[in-house]
Fold these 2 entries.
Entry 1:
Amino acid sequence: MKVGSEHFRTIWATDDALENRAVEIIDQTKLPFRFEIVKMETVSDAVHAIGDMLVRGAPLIGATAAYGMALAMRNDASDENLQSSYDDLLAARPTAVNLRWALDNMKNILSPLEPSGRLQAAFARAAEICNEDAAQCSAIGDHGLGLIREIYEKNGRSRPVNILTHCNAGWLATVDWGTATAPIYKAFEAGIPVHVWVDETRPRNQGASLTAWELGQNGVPHTVIVDNAGGHLMQKGEVDMCIVGTDRTTRAGDVCNKIGTYLKALAASDNSVPFYVALPGTTIDWSISDGRDIPIEERSEAEVTEMTGLSKSGELETVRIVANGSPAINPAFDVTPAKFVTALITERGIAAPTEGGLAKLYPEESKY
Ligand code: MRU
């Protein structure tokens, strides 16, 4: 998607010869105030980028892990390093299942090869994973566009379609297009007027810092709201639909996403607002049926007790917002039971949030 007038993906390999090839990412901890590109040269760089959230969002975490494996092979292509790099990357963040998917995929391809062939194969497969993710997100956009168009028509084409989203499930969370934002970008490109309510998404403010920024860069009308405003807007009829992303969706359609998603789904249900979840197949955990079995990441207290922003003098500054001595907890995700999800928007089409609904679209996976 666009940054200024230039097209960017969120991750790419450099043009260097294979043995010196590096991987570049946008440092999302600096957005929206600084656009900085960071070079990763080792698997530890990739572990740091994922764990400290220079990159974040389920599909991009997976893509970064894939390139992390390629960087590991640059240093040492032995079986031992393959396994220890897999383990280190897998431990970087626990909830987004795309991480495990990408690592398993890379390991299955690299393990049978002689060490001398692994570096080239790893960079090639990581690049393919990125291309596949961009194509899947684009297809999610095409399928979701129909849902937005339906609402626009139902409203007599009289006003923009108001869409509420939570966290950043935009192109910054994927390789390109985004999941929740892909239908929005496609609708915007198709000339359907849209307006996005952007939840700020405490504590890390991915909505305020990332979603608002990327929508702005791409010209999409939007308004940032505090996390608690969504229910009120729904009661006033100012939300036509919700579209969110997910870090892990069970085979029965329970959806794990950024903390606060569940409350939006409850409010949507109470107000008969359709609640859609957009995801590529790589975000489905076929081994789990019940969302309560999904590991929920606990992040540091400081993300709750402190906030970072731009000071009046133009510096990035962190301030404390909680009384000294008051403890805080920071569960990063919650689970929305499938019964509150209207439908899942996937790259293969729209699925009912049920085991049968997903099995119909992914018959090759429904072996459980
Ligand atoms: O903690 P984050 O910023 O990695 O959480 C991201 C989300 O919760 C997204 O909604 C999710 O990964 C879907 S991304 C397309």
Entry 2:
Amino acid sequence: MIDTSKHQGQRKQLVDQLKDKGINDTKVLDAIATVPRHLFMDPALEEYSYLDKAFPIAAGQTISQPYTVAFQTQLLKVKKGEKVLEIGTGSGYQASILVNLGAKLYTIERQQELYKKASRLLNNLSLKPKKTIFQDGTLGLAEYSPYDAIIVTAAAETVPKTFLDQLSVGGRLVVPVGKNSQKMIRYIKIKENKIKREVFGNFRFVPLLKNKA
Ligand code: SAH
């Protein structure tokens, strides 16, 4: 669990790159500057931790590109103390950014190996989600709903209505939608029966898959 001044310097440079690419939420940039991404990487790839790229982790999955993490987090507009659901814990990096921002986070992962690894790491770093859950998240997580924000970190072909049902009024859902490449979509529940939908840029995610692995 070593975080050196070299790592910190590399994070500052990464933050500058994200600013150049249009990320302007200072809380999000501060979180990226604080959380040691290298601890979430495959140890063999540690030296690349602060490149703005996605990398393979275990179980054929990926740790998202920092720009993507920052972009999704910025769209989510999480305030301290809000209840947030993440679908696709993966490495736990996106989760750690949300916890750093003060979210009460529920995070779901369908791959047992990743669920175990990320739970342990987040615990050791004292960036504890409220709950890490080993489950299929394709229908969200009704048990603890409604959420102030829901973030999906794998590509959905369509958006299940259950995700929208699980938002509180004022709640935001950020989800990449599409088959081969995805558009980032944000839904905001303006009133109980009124949803606003906004479409952002193109991204590439691993697919949202059904059932536990
Ligand atoms: N947020 C992660 C990104 C990981 S990639 C990070 O910061 O590293 C997407 C993750 O979604 C993968 O780990 C994959 O196993 C998981 N996933 C895919 N379908 C899922 C589902 N139905 N329920 C829960 N997790 C799922």
